[in-house]
Design goal:
The protein has two domains: about 250 residues, Spore Coat Polysaccharide Biosynthesis Protein SpsA, Chain A (Alpha-Beta Complex), CATH 3.90.550; about 40 residues, no CATH class. Helices cover about 35% and strands about 25% of the residues. β2 and β3 form a beta hairpin. α8 crosses α9. It is globular and about 60 Å long. Bound molecules: uridine 5'-triphosphate. The site of uridine 5'-triphosphate has 20 residues, from α5.
Length: about 300
Protein backbone atom coordinates (compact mmCIF):
# COMPACT_ATOMS: atom_id res chain seq x y z
CA UNK A 1 0.00 0.00 0.00
CA UNK A 2 1.17 3.52 -0.76
CA UNK A 3 2.53 5.40 2.25
CA UNK A 4 0.50 8.31 3.60
CA UNK A 5 2.06 11.76 3.54
CA UNK A 6 2.47 12.71 7.21
CA UNK A 7 5.65 14.81 7.20
CA UNK A 8 6.13 18.28 5.78
CA UNK A 9 9.27 20.39 5.44
CA UNK A 10 8.96 24.16 5.79
CA UNK A 11 12.14 25.81 4.50
CA UNK A 12 12.40 29.22 6.17
CA UNK A 13 16.14 29.82 6.01
CA UNK A 14 16.18 32.23 3.05
CA UNK A 15 17.46 35.76 3.47
CA UNK A 16 14.20 37.48 2.51
CA UNK A 17 16.09 40.30 0.78
CA UNK A 18 12.97 41.58 -0.97
CA UNK A 19 11.63 42.60 2.42
CA UNK A 20 14.65 44.44 3.73
CA UNK A 21 14.96 46.25 6.05
CA UNK A 22 12.10 44.45 7.89
CA UNK A 23 13.78 41.05 7.48
CA UNK A 24 16.92 42.33 9.22
CA UNK A 25 15.21 41.31 12.45
CA UNK A 26 11.82 39.82 11.54
CA UNK A 27 11.75 36.45 9.78
CA UNK A 28 9.62 36.78 6.63
CA UNK A 29 7.39 33.89 7.70
CA UNK A 30 6.38 35.63 10.91
CA UNK A 31 5.17 38.73 9.06
CA UNK A 32 1.48 39.25 9.62
CA UNK A 33 -1.25 38.76 7.07
CA UNK A 34 -4.23 40.53 8.72
CA UNK A 35 -3.64 39.11 12.22
CA UNK A 36 -1.81 35.83 11.75
CA UNK A 37 1.79 35.21 10.73
CA UNK A 38 2.30 33.67 7.29
CA UNK A 39 3.54 30.47 8.90
CA UNK A 40 0.20 29.91 10.64
CA UNK A 41 -1.60 29.76 7.28
CA UNK A 42 0.89 27.12 6.12
CA UNK A 43 0.53 25.06 9.32
CA UNK A 44 -3.28 25.12 9.07
CA UNK A 45 -3.11 24.05 5.43
CA UNK A 46 -0.71 21.22 6.28
CA UNK A 47 -2.91 19.99 9.15
CA UNK A 48 -5.94 19.84 6.86
CA UNK A 49 -3.93 17.66 4.49
CA UNK A 50 -3.16 15.15 7.26
CA UNK A 51 0.37 16.29 8.14
CA UNK A 52 1.45 15.21 11.63
CA UNK A 53 5.15 16.11 11.69
CA UNK A 54 6.26 19.66 10.94
CA UNK A 55 9.93 20.14 10.11
CA UNK A 56 11.28 23.67 9.89
CA UNK A 57 14.59 24.40 8.22
CA UNK A 58 15.78 27.55 9.93
CA UNK A 59 18.78 29.85 9.94
CA UNK A 60 20.25 32.32 12.38
CA UNK A 61 17.66 34.97 13.21
CA UNK A 62 14.54 32.81 13.03
CA UNK A 63 14.17 32.64 16.83
CA UNK A 64 10.91 34.64 16.75
CA UNK A 65 9.42 31.91 14.62
CA UNK A 66 10.36 29.21 17.12
CA UNK A 67 8.97 31.34 19.97
CA UNK A 68 5.68 31.71 18.11
CA UNK A 69 5.04 27.98 18.50
CA UNK A 70 5.70 27.98 22.24
CA UNK A 71 2.79 27.80 24.66
CA UNK A 72 1.87 31.11 26.31
CA UNK A 73 0.57 30.03 29.75
CA UNK A 74 0.76 33.49 31.30
CA UNK A 75 -1.15 35.10 28.46
CA UNK A 76 -3.71 32.29 28.56
CA UNK A 77 -4.17 32.77 32.29
CA UNK A 78 -4.70 36.53 31.90
CA UNK A 79 -7.26 36.03 29.14
CA UNK A 80 -9.07 33.41 31.21
CA UNK A 81 -9.13 35.72 34.22
CA UNK A 82 -10.65 38.50 32.11
CA UNK A 83 -13.21 36.12 30.60
CA UNK A 84 -11.90 36.69 27.08
CA UNK A 85 -12.88 33.24 25.86
CA UNK A 86 -12.89 34.20 22.15
CA UNK A 87 -9.26 35.37 22.28
CA UNK A 88 -8.32 32.32 24.34
CA UNK A 89 -9.78 30.09 21.64
CA UNK A 90 -7.77 31.89 18.94
CA UNK A 91 -4.60 31.57 21.00
CA UNK A 92 -5.16 27.87 21.66
CA UNK A 93 -5.74 27.16 17.98
CA UNK A 94 -2.07 28.01 17.40
CA UNK A 95 -0.77 25.46 19.94
CA UNK A 96 1.28 22.56 18.68
CA UNK A 97 1.71 19.28 20.56
CA UNK A 98 5.14 18.61 22.05
CA UNK A 99 7.32 16.74 19.60
CA UNK A 100 5.24 17.67 16.57
CA UNK A 101 7.67 20.37 15.46
CA UNK A 102 11.33 19.84 14.71
CA UNK A 103 13.90 22.42 13.72
CA UNK A 104 17.01 21.77 11.67
CA UNK A 105 19.56 24.37 10.81
CA UNK A 106 20.71 25.35 7.34
CA UNK A 107 24.05 26.91 8.14
CA UNK A 108 24.47 28.71 4.83
CA UNK A 109 21.75 29.90 2.43
CA UNK A 110 22.84 27.60 -0.39
CA UNK A 111 19.40 27.36 -1.97
CA UNK A 112 15.98 25.77 -1.53
CA UNK A 113 17.22 22.32 -2.59
CA UNK A 114 19.94 22.47 0.03
CA UNK A 115 17.44 23.56 2.70
CA UNK A 116 15.25 20.52 1.93
CA UNK A 117 18.32 18.26 1.98
CA UNK A 118 19.15 19.51 5.50
CA UNK A 119 15.96 17.76 6.73
CA UNK A 120 16.79 14.38 5.13
CA UNK A 121 17.42 12.48 8.37
CA UNK A 122 14.01 13.47 9.72
CA UNK A 123 12.25 12.24 6.59
CA UNK A 124 13.80 8.81 6.10
CA UNK A 125 12.51 6.60 3.34
CA UNK A 126 9.00 7.91 2.79
CA UNK A 127 7.20 10.47 0.63
CA UNK A 128 6.87 13.93 2.14
CA UNK A 129 5.51 17.41 1.49
CA UNK A 130 7.41 20.67 1.10
CA UNK A 131 5.59 23.94 1.76
CA UNK A 132 6.92 27.45 1.26
CA UNK A 133 5.00 29.62 3.72
CA UNK A 134 5.48 32.78 1.65
CA UNK A 135 3.22 31.26 -1.01
CA UNK A 136 -0.22 31.75 0.51
CA UNK A 137 -3.07 30.04 -1.30
CA UNK A 138 -6.70 31.03 -0.79
CA UNK A 139 -8.80 28.01 -1.70
CA UNK A 140 -12.01 26.33 -0.68
CA UNK A 141 -10.18 23.02 -0.27
CA UNK A 142 -6.62 23.77 0.88
CA UNK A 143 -4.03 23.30 -1.87
CA UNK A 144 -1.99 20.59 -0.14
CA UNK A 145 -5.15 18.56 0.59
CA UNK A 146 -6.00 18.75 -3.13
CA UNK A 147 -2.51 17.49 -3.94
CA UNK A 148 -2.66 14.64 -1.42
CA UNK A 149 -5.86 13.48 -3.16
CA UNK A 150 -4.17 13.74 -6.55
CA UNK A 151 -1.23 11.74 -5.17
CA UNK A 152 -3.54 8.86 -4.26
CA UNK A 153 -4.35 8.53 -7.98
CA UNK A 154 -0.94 9.49 -9.35
CA UNK A 155 2.00 8.06 -7.42
CA UNK A 156 5.27 9.88 -7.91
CA UNK A 157 6.28 13.48 -7.41
CA UNK A 158 3.64 16.20 -7.63
CA UNK A 159 4.36 19.92 -7.82
CA UNK A 160 1.71 22.64 -7.55
CA UNK A 161 1.52 24.52 -10.82
CA UNK A 162 -0.13 27.62 -12.24
CA UNK A 163 -0.13 29.44 -15.58
CA UNK A 164 2.00 32.60 -15.70
CA UNK A 165 2.38 35.16 -18.51
CA UNK A 166 5.45 35.00 -20.80
CA UNK A 167 7.20 37.91 -19.10
CA UNK A 168 7.10 36.14 -15.71
CA UNK A 169 8.44 32.71 -16.75
CA UNK A 170 12.05 33.64 -15.95
CA UNK A 171 11.15 33.97 -12.26
CA UNK A 172 9.90 30.39 -11.77
CA UNK A 173 10.70 26.73 -12.28
CA UNK A 174 8.84 25.93 -15.52
CA UNK A 175 7.35 22.59 -16.55
CA UNK A 176 8.02 20.81 -19.83
CA UNK A 177 4.70 19.07 -20.43
CA UNK A 178 4.49 15.50 -21.72
CA UNK A 179 0.74 15.00 -21.50
CA UNK A 180 -1.84 17.54 -20.42
CA UNK A 181 -4.74 15.82 -18.68
CA UNK A 182 -6.40 19.00 -17.41
CA UNK A 183 -6.04 19.33 -13.68
CA UNK A 184 -2.91 17.16 -13.79
CA UNK A 185 -0.07 17.10 -16.34
CA UNK A 186 2.74 14.60 -16.74
CA UNK A 187 6.12 16.15 -17.48
CA UNK A 188 9.25 15.39 -19.43
CA UNK A 189 11.40 18.00 -17.76
CA UNK A 190 11.63 21.11 -15.67
CA UNK A 191 13.73 24.25 -16.10
CA UNK A 192 14.57 26.58 -13.22
CA UNK A 193 14.28 30.27 -14.12
CA UNK A 194 14.68 29.90 -17.91
CA UNK A 195 15.91 32.84 -19.95
CA UNK A 196 13.18 35.02 -21.46
CA UNK A 197 11.59 33.21 -24.42
CA UNK A 198 13.09 29.81 -23.50
CA UNK A 199 10.41 28.44 -21.15
CA UNK A 200 9.05 25.08 -22.34
CA UNK A 201 5.49 26.06 -21.29
CA UNK A 202 3.66 28.68 -19.25
CA UNK A 203 3.08 26.30 -16.36
CA UNK A 204 5.10 27.45 -13.36
CA UNK A 205 5.93 25.55 -10.17
CA UNK A 206 4.88 27.24 -6.94
CA UNK A 207 5.60 26.46 -3.31
CA UNK A 208 3.79 23.17 -2.64
CA UNK A 209 5.37 19.81 -3.40
CA UNK A 210 4.81 16.13 -2.71
CA UNK A 211 8.12 14.36 -3.20
CA UNK A 212 9.62 10.90 -3.01
CA UNK A 213 12.78 10.03 -1.04
CA UNK A 214 14.57 9.72 -4.41
CA UNK A 215 14.59 13.52 -4.57
CA UNK A 216 16.56 13.60 -1.30
CA UNK A 217 19.06 11.16 -2.79
CA UNK A 218 19.43 13.39 -5.84
CA UNK A 219 20.06 16.35 -3.54
CA UNK A 220 23.09 14.48 -2.17
CA UNK A 221 24.89 15.56 -5.34
CA UNK A 222 24.68 19.16 -4.10
CA UNK A 223 25.00 20.39 -7.66
CA UNK A 224 24.60 24.19 -7.93
CA UNK A 225 22.08 25.28 -10.57
CA UNK A 226 20.43 28.57 -11.59
CA UNK A 227 21.83 31.53 -9.64
CA UNK A 228 24.59 29.30 -8.19
CA UNK A 229 22.04 27.82 -5.72
CA UNK A 230 21.24 24.15 -5.11
CA UNK A 231 17.83 24.00 -6.70
CA UNK A 232 14.99 21.70 -5.66
CA UNK A 233 13.67 21.62 -9.25
CA UNK A 234 17.00 20.16 -10.48
CA UNK A 235 16.75 17.28 -8.00
CA UNK A 236 13.12 16.65 -9.02
CA UNK A 237 14.26 16.60 -12.68
CA UNK A 238 16.97 14.09 -11.73
CA UNK A 239 14.36 11.86 -10.06
CA UNK A 240 12.33 11.98 -13.29
CA UNK A 241 15.39 11.01 -15.31
CA UNK A 242 15.91 8.10 -12.93
CA UNK A 243 12.47 6.83 -13.98
CA UNK A 244 10.02 8.43 -11.54
CA UNK A 245 6.93 10.33 -12.62
CA UNK A 246 6.78 14.07 -12.01
CA UNK A 247 3.33 15.60 -12.27
CA UNK A 248 2.25 19.21 -12.30
CA UNK A 249 -1.01 19.84 -10.46
CA UNK A 250 -3.16 22.83 -11.46
CA UNK A 251 -4.60 23.58 -8.04
CA UNK A 252 -7.94 25.25 -7.49
CA UNK A 253 -7.49 28.56 -5.70
CA UNK A 254 -5.62 31.85 -5.81
CA UNK A 255 -1.94 32.02 -4.95
CA UNK A 256 -0.41 35.15 -3.44
CA UNK A 257 3.35 35.63 -3.64
CA UNK A 258 3.83 36.98 -0.12
CA UNK A 259 7.60 36.96 -0.64
CA UNK A 260 7.08 40.09 -2.75
CA UNK A 261 5.78 43.41 -1.48
CA UNK A 262 3.06 43.71 -4.06
CA UNK A 263 1.87 40.12 -3.48
CA UNK A 264 1.83 40.67 0.27
CA UNK A 265 -0.27 43.83 -0.08
CA UNK A 266 -2.71 42.09 -2.43
CA UNK A 267 -3.05 39.19 0.00
CA UNK A 268 -3.64 41.60 2.88
CA UNK A 269 -6.50 43.35 1.06
CA UNK A 270 -7.99 40.11 -0.19
CA UNK A 271 -7.87 38.27 3.16
CA UNK A 272 -9.19 41.33 5.01
CA UNK A 273 -12.10 41.68 2.58
CA UNK A 274 -12.93 38.03 3.20
CA UNK A 275 -13.31 38.73 6.93
CA UNK A 276 -16.72 39.74 8.22
CA UNK A 277 -15.27 41.89 11.00
CA UNK A 278 -13.14 43.95 8.61
CA UNK A 279 -14.87 43.90 5.25
CA UNK A 280 -17.25 46.86 5.59
CA UNK A 281 -14.68 49.34 6.91
CA UNK A 282 -12.01 48.37 4.42
CA UNK A 283 -14.42 48.34 1.52
CA UNK A 284 -15.65 51.85 2.38
CA UNK A 285 -12.05 53.06 2.61
CA UNK A 286 -11.06 51.48 -0.71
CA UNK A 287 -14.09 53.02 -2.41
CA UNK A 288 -13.17 56.43 -1.03
CA UNK A 289 -9.61 56.32 -2.30
CA UNK A 290 -10.64 54.96 -5.71
CA UNK A 291 -13.23 57.75 -5.98
CA UNK A 292 -10.66 60.39 -4.97
CA UNK A 293 -8.10 58.95 -7.41
CA UNK A 294 -10.61 59.05 -10.29
CA UNK A 295 -11.73 62.55 -9.42
CA UNK A 296 -8.10 63.74 -9.48
CA UNK A 297 -7.52 62.35 -13.00
P1 LIG B 1 13.11 32.73 -1.98
O1 LIG B 1 13.48 32.49 -3.37
O2 LIG B 1 11.81 33.44 -1.72
O3 LIG B 1 14.29 33.49 -1.25
O4 LIG B 1 13.11 31.33 -1.24
P2 LIG B 1 14.29 34.26 0.11
O5 LIG B 1 15.69 34.32 0.60
O6 LIG B 1 13.28 33.69 1.07
O7 LIG B 1 13.76 35.71 -0.27
P3 LIG B 1 14.41 36.86 -1.23
O8 LIG B 1 14.26 36.36 -2.63
O9 LIG B 1 15.82 37.10 -0.80
O10 LIG B 1 13.53 38.04 -0.93
C1 LIG B 1 12.05 30.42 -1.37
C2 LIG B 1 11.90 29.62 -0.09
O11 LIG B 1 13.09 28.85 0.13
C3 LIG B 1 13.66 29.13 1.40
C4 LIG B 1 13.10 30.51 1.76
O12 LIG B 1 13.09 30.67 3.17
C5 LIG B 1 11.71 30.47 1.15
O13 LIG B 1 10.79 29.79 1.99
N1 LIG B 1 15.13 29.08 1.28
C6 LIG B 1 15.75 29.66 0.22
C7 LIG B 1 15.86 28.45 2.26
O14 LIG B 1 15.30 27.91 3.26
N2 LIG B 1 17.21 28.40 2.14
C8 LIG B 1 17.85 28.96 1.08
O15 LIG B 1 19.10 28.85 1.02
C9 LIG B 1 17.12 29.61 0.10
Amino acid sequence: MRKKITKAIFPVAGMGTRFLPATKSVPKEIMTLVDRPLVQYAIDEAREAGIKDFIFVTSRGTGALEDYFDLAPQLEQELRKKGKEDLLKILKSTNMDSGQIAYVRQHKPLGLGHAVWCARHLIGNEPFAVMLPDDVIAAEKPCLAQMVEAYAENPGNIVAAMEVPDEKTSSYGMLDIKEDMGRIVSTKGMVEKPKMGEAPSNLAVIGRYILTPTVLKMLNKKRPGAGGEIQLTDAISDAREAGEEVYGYRFEGHRFDCGSKSGFLQATVSFALAREDLRDDLWAYLNDIIYAEKAAQ
